[in-house]
Design goal:
Length: 250
């Protein structure tokens, strides 16, 4: 019973590891992950066309938009697979920064004010479920934590925006949380534009993840609530009782 399950789990882990992204070898004091279209995962589903798959599009967006009573919102999903050798024994992630180049924009139903434009906010959230870019649509998009993991406010100009994601990346590196990536959102009605990993532009114009490692302890593993632990114990005991051969009188 357990052997097929272990084999399936091992296959899944190996398949996931095969997509791990390497650090840019030009840097030795930190790890800079710059995915290409072949190994990066990013997609921006569109509310107005809820079944449209945009996994191979060259542009991503973040906006909360309405026009004539119809939804025109975008969110952008980004996933970086951490290298397996990111941390040496006794190390942890001491700093992690998402670098997100905001490079173009527009508004629905009007001509946008060129930068400096009215201030907007860009938010970053932790994605809660697994996904692949070609399978994501607005009606079939991964859930994410509504509380932002990081945000940048008062954005009025184009340029690279930096998000401190140290705690989240540290948990991924030590395996205390599953790495399903980030989602980029904005509560504003000005569309914020980013190039995707598929775009034929320089890596400096695409999202990247900067990670620094150093001596330190791994994050604490979240404690399981007592009631869940009790249910698990009860479930295991019940399963063993069902499967245990009944003794026979001799």
């Amino acid at each position: 019973m357990w052997l097929p399950l272990l084999i399936a789990l091992g296959t899944l882990l190996l398949a996931d590891a095969s997509h791990a992204q390497a650090c840019n070898p030009a840097y030795t004091e930190f790890c800079l992950i710059e995915p290409t279209g072949a190994d990066g995962q990013d997609v921006a589903p569109y509310c107005f066309l809820p079944t449209l798959g945009r996994g191979q599009y060259e542009t991503n967006y973040a906006v909360t938009g309405m026009l004539d009573g119809e939804c025109h919102s975008f969110v952008t999903y980004l996933r970086f697979q951490l290298p397996g050798d990111l941390l040496e024994p006794g190390e942890t992630v001491t700093q992690a920064t998402l670098l997100l180049p905001y490079l173009f924009s527009f508004t629905f139903g009007g001509t946008p004010t060129p930068p400096p434009h009215p201030p907007v906010t860009i938010r970053l959230h932790r994605v809660m479920t697994s996904w692949t870019e070609d399978a994501v649509t607005w009606v079939d998009r991964p859930s994410f934590d509504t509380a932002p993991a990081a945000e940048v406010t008062g954005v009025t100009h184009y340029g690279i925006k930096e998000f401190d994601v140290t705690d989240l990346v540290r948990s991924w590196a030590h395996g205390t949380q599953s790495n399903y990536g980030f989602v980029v959102t904005s509560p504003n009605d000005r569309t914020l534009g980013f190039y995707s990993f598929e775009a034929p532009v320089s890596t400096a114009q695409k999202a990247a993840l900067l990670i620094q490692a150093g001596a330190g302890d791994p994050p604490a593993v979240p404690m399981m609530p007592a009631w869940i632990a009790a249910l698990l114990v009860l479930g295991v005991a019940t399963l063993l009782a069902i499967r245990m051969p009944r003794s026979r009188d001799r």
